[in-house]
């Protein structure tokens, strides 16, 4: 099975949805943000990138692009093997293979989710979302020329998650992948019949 690669802006639900899909399909889930995080800290909390330490780490990544690139090269090797679910900002643009899904949600909705997750005010969460959106965009634009949140061309599926739970989003993805696999199987069978007739 091809890798499933899930992307989206901060607090869109990438990691949560990836974990649900991995559990349902008996696959391993990898959060690329966690791999990057391990380069700077042993802290495992999900809100690391929203903290002063996280923003300091971002400054270091801006000064040394090889931090991101070395992680991305390792993840690309994993994606090629398949049978994995990846939560990542940039893999849909970098990988030539995989089912690529973008999770959409407004800044307001993402701020609500972040506030609930981190137990902070919506106002504070909105500030963090605005800052992270801007800094992530600039970082990946400079490193890879990618327009995160604007360029949707690499994606096989774009889901508006505004009014959906993570489980509902995961179910939609699994269903769509199943449809794609059935179409592929039909095409392969048709091609085989053509070859047999020759």
Descriptive overview:
With about 200 residues, the chain is an alpha/beta fold. The chain has one domain: Rossmann fold. About 60% of the residues lie in helices and about 10% in strands. The chain is built from 8 helices and 5 strands. Helix 1 (about 15-25) packs across helix 8.
How are the elements arranged and paired?
Elements lengths: L3 E5 L5 H12 L2 E4 H6 L14 H12 L2 H16 L2 E4 L3 H4 L4 E6 L2 H12 L3 H23 L12 E4 L5 H32 L1
Parallel strand pairs: 1-3, 1-4, 2-3, 4-5
So what's the overall shape? globular
Average pLDDT figure = 90
Helix content: 55-70%
CATH architecture: 3-Layer(aba) Sandwich
Question: SSE string, helix = H, strand = E?
Answer: EHEHHHEHEHHEH
The number of E-state strands comes to: 5
Structural class: alpha/beta
- In the sheet with the most strands, the strands line up as 2-3-1-4-5
- CATH topology name, in short, is Rossmann fold
Rg over C-alpha atoms, rounded to the nearest angstrom: 18 Å
Percent in strands: 5-15%
Number of domains: 1
CATH class: Alpha Beta
Discrete helix count: 8
User: Describe the biggest sheet?
Assistant: 5 strands, parallel
């Amino acid at each position: 099975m091809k890798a499933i690669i899930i992307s989206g802006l901060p607090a869109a639900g990438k990691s949560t949805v990836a974990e649900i899909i991995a559990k349902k399909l008996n696959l391993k889930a990898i959060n690329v943000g966690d791999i990057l995080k391990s380069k700077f800290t042993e802290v495992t909390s999900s809100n690391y990138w929203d903290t002063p330490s996280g923003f300091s780490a971002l400054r270091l990544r801006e000064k040394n692009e090889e931090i991101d690139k070395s992680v991305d090269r390792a993840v690309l090797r994993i994606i090629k093997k398949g049978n994995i679910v990846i939560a990542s900002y940039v893999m849909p643009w970098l990988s030539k293979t995989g089912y690529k899904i973008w999770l959409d949600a407004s800044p307001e909705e993402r701020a609500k989710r972040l506030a609930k997750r981190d137990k902070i005010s919506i106002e504070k969460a909105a500030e963090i979302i605005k800052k992270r959106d801007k800094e992530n965009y600039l970082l990946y634009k400079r490193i890879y020329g990618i327009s995160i949140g604007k360029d949707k061309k690499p994606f096989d599926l774009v889901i508006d998650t505004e009014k959906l739970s993570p489980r509902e989003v995961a179910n939609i993805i699994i269903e769509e992948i199943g449809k794609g696999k059935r179409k592929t199987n039909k095409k392969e069978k048709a091609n085989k019949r053509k070859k047999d007739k020759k």
